[in-house]
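Exercise: predict the structure of this protein bound to arginine.
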Amino acid sequence: MDYRKYIAERISIEGVTEEEIYSALALPPNLELGDYALPCFKFAKILRKSPVAIAEELKESYKTDEVISDVSAVNGYLNFKINKSALTSAVLKEIFQKKSAYGSSEEGKGKTICIDYSSVNIAKPFHIGHLSTTVIGGALYKLYKFLGYNVVGINHLGDYGTQFGKLICAYKRWGDRQEVEKGGIHAINELYVRFNNEADEQMESEAREYFRLIESGDKEANEIFEWFKSLTLKYVESIYDKLGVKFDSYAGERFYIDKMGPVIDELRRKNLLEISDGASIVNLDKYNMPPCLILRSDGASLYSTRDLAAAYYRKKTYDFDKCLYVTAYQQNLHFKQIFKVLELLGNDWSKDLVHVAYGMVSLEDGSMSTRKGKVVWLEDVIDKCVEKAYNIISDKNPDLENKEDIAEKVGIGAVIFGALYNNKIKDITFSYDKVLSFEGETSVYVQYTCARANSVLLKAEKIESITENYLPEDNEFEIIKTLADFSKTLKESAEKYEPCYITRYAVDLAQKFNKFYIENKILTAEGDTKKFRIALTSATLQTLKNALSILGIGVPDKM
Ligand code: ARG
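Solution:
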């Protein structure tokens, strides 16, 4: 039960929406005063009254009931006391009724969100730099679905560019069909690296010719290209499976080659196109941005040109309410330019385009570069995490069955959770020891808490109903309040495009449960208390599972 919503629905302030009241509700400065508080300072300006007077007036008109048992006005705050037993039974009932749908909603009904994420480059390594876009996008995808939106996951493949000419040239010169078939993306990448290290002028010119051949529809060149593409996709899809990530469309840059014409015509018609040094550009001086390049002087299109065409195509095809682009902040300028150009073209939907930018991920032991071939493959990071998880688990609990399965859930969970724990804009250094710690703010800690809850439940009779009028103790009520906050957390996470709200929530709930577990008896408690505590354990486990599943993380029964 979302009791902030409950309160917000019962307060009306002229000129202030229910949403605004909802998000203003906070913890009171002093928890003795209540469980929730509405600071009235924000409304002073609109109402032209002092916060103290506003709080007093709201207190007079607020009707207490079986949920909110007491309201007080103190120093400009309106404080609410929740009827603990009413909240407790309401929350538990809702969890047992909705189960794996607890926290879900219909707020997105009838709305469509496109999420452009992971967007791999064909024939290039899928490396640790792709981790964030893949898991942030993947989490948002599942989150919006959970909130009732129609979601379209788009992998805007990097499948266009002169590098494909180079690759074909390298393959023709040094490649072997069987070897490449067997080595897949790794073999292709080796060819690319070798080209960059060894190509002379002659090869460079051959490469340009191969690129031209792909473009002009030459059968052989296109067959080789398509083959590279299928090898790359086969490879990345195996990683997507592990990370629990899905796409509805793989329309990449090449897909838009024949869709750019109308956009360029439109730019011309609206007098937005200028020629500068032979290139066609949109001048963005007025907006303090460098020009957006549309066509190079040789007439070739650019990354931006294809993105403009893609935006039109997506609007037309999906009629989105929002279209998100999950890429590193290095592309801030690119998206600012694209969004501005679309706005200048008169598309009011340009305001619905959002660049969801994130920081860099590096490993503790240095960085990477694709061209020189020193690159950390995401697959290796995942495998290493799973292997380390296996060792840790075996050490802790040598008799555990299905260790491989468990290690897979723990290791993959650690990679995902580790990448999602901080605000996404922060640069992060990925540390195996940190993400795999049982004590830290990790998925391992949360999963371990789940296993702990599960082992309690295995020994208990199944209780999914609760005693009415149970008055929870502090430890218990802390958990209840956190459980009740789940849907609010999801809503805010979706609004801010921040999966870290969910990871942090999971750790917080797990910490509160562990405190309760250590300080209170569960199975050896008596009567109603025992029943309640078992129900609380079960509700916590369900909620933690729901939170982790939005992130694509599985929960082992035992650890
Ligand atoms: N392939 C690009 C890269 O690796 C990311 C594409 C992001 N999406 C887009 N519509 N530009 O940087």
